[in-house]
From TrEMBL:
Endpoints of the signal sequence: none
Protein's name according to its UniProt entry: N(6)-L-threonylcarbamoyladenine synthase
UniProt xrefs under PANTHER family: TRNA N6-ADENOSINE THREONYLCARBAMOYLTRANSFERASE (PTHR11735:SF14)
GO molecular function: metal ion binding; tRNA N(6)-L-threonylcarbamoyladenine synthase activity
Gene Ontology, cellular component aspect: cytoplasm; EKC/KEOPS complex
InterPro entries: ATPase_NBD, Gcp-like_dom, KAE1/TsaD
SUPFAM superfamilies: Actin-like ATPase domain
EC number: 2.3.1.234
Coiled coil, from the record: none
Pfam families to which the protein is assigned, alphabetical: TsaD
Any GO BP: tRNA processing
Length: 187
């Protein structure tokens, strides 16, 4: 029996990724490239989108090669619809629409927050998690209720992810591989 295969695009912030996954959550490939700014600087939407445009085609080729598949093997194309930074999100959305037309594949829009939760649920085997979701501009308490994920609480000031990003810039730490990781390495 053939496994359903999706080619997915994530480009909601400074990282562009193209992954190949099966319906059961098996990751066949996951190449990505991070837009690295000088230490102490943040990343701006326009420059980030330009970075994504420069790297998305090589990432598609790498994802297909590593997964050992062709476009004919793909059942659907997925992309991060949001939340995230507008200009970088548009890159993935446009690429997916073009590939959908070329390859005659359906498109699945994915909520960034739900995708993170679902990945964690698959990895941990959790059936009904309550999640403290911390990603970039979002810090929320989320749980599955009445057939969908619902936000039960969230920050009204600065999100934890953005707080770490800003703190790393003040310390002039690189965002490679990530500001939070680099903060942890400082002693």
């Amino acid at each position: 029996m053939k496994k359903m295969i999706a080619l997915g695009f994530e480009g909601s912030a400074n990282k562009i990724g193209v992954g190949v996954v099966t319906l059961d959550g098996t990751i066949l490939s996951n190449p990505r490239h991070t837009y690295i700014t000088p230490p102490g600087h943040g990343f701006l939407p326009r420059e980030t989108a330009q970075h994504h445009l420069q790297h998305v085609l090589p990432l598609i080729k790498a994802a297909l090669k590593t997964a050992e598949i062709t476009p004919d093997d793909i059942d659907c194309l997925c992309y991060t619809k949001g939340p995230g930074m507008g200009a970088p999100l548009q890159v993935s959305a446009i690429v997916v629409r073009v590939l959908s037309q070329l390859w005659k594949k359906p498109i699945v829009a994915v909520n960034h927050c739900v995708a993170h939760i679902e990945m964690g649920r698959i990895v941990t085997g959790a059936d009904d998690p309550v999640v403290l979701y911390v990603s970039g501009g979002n810090t929320q308490v989320i749980a599955y209720s009445e057939g969908r994920y619902r936000i039960f609480g969230e920050t009204i000031d600065i999100a934890v992810g953005n707080c770490l990003d800003r703190f790393a810039r003040v310390l002039t730490l690189s965002n490679d591989p990530s500001p939070g990781y680099n903060i942890e390495q400082v002693r």
